[in-house]
Amino acid sequence: MTQVVKIEGMKCDGCVKAVTEAFKNVAGVKSVQVDLAKKQATVEGNVDSAALAASLKETSYRVVEA
C-alpha cells in the first residue's frame, strides 16, 4: 500500500533525513521517499498514518492530517 502524508516543520536536508529515518523504523514500512519542496513523504508498506505520526512524537516535525 502506498500513502502520501503531509509533514509540517521540515526546512532542510537534515529534516528530510530525520523524517526518513523515523519512518523507516516504523513496523511495516518498506520504503520512504521524503520530498522537502512538497513537504510530504510517500510511504510504501502496510502501516497507518497514526503510526507514522507517532514516530515523529519526539521531533519538531508532525504529520498534518488532510
TrEMBL record:
GO molecular function, one term: metal ion binding
TM region(s), chain numbering: none
InterPro entries: HMA_dom, HMA_dom_sf
Pfam families: HMA
Domain named HMA: residues: 1-64
Protein name: HMA domain-containing protein
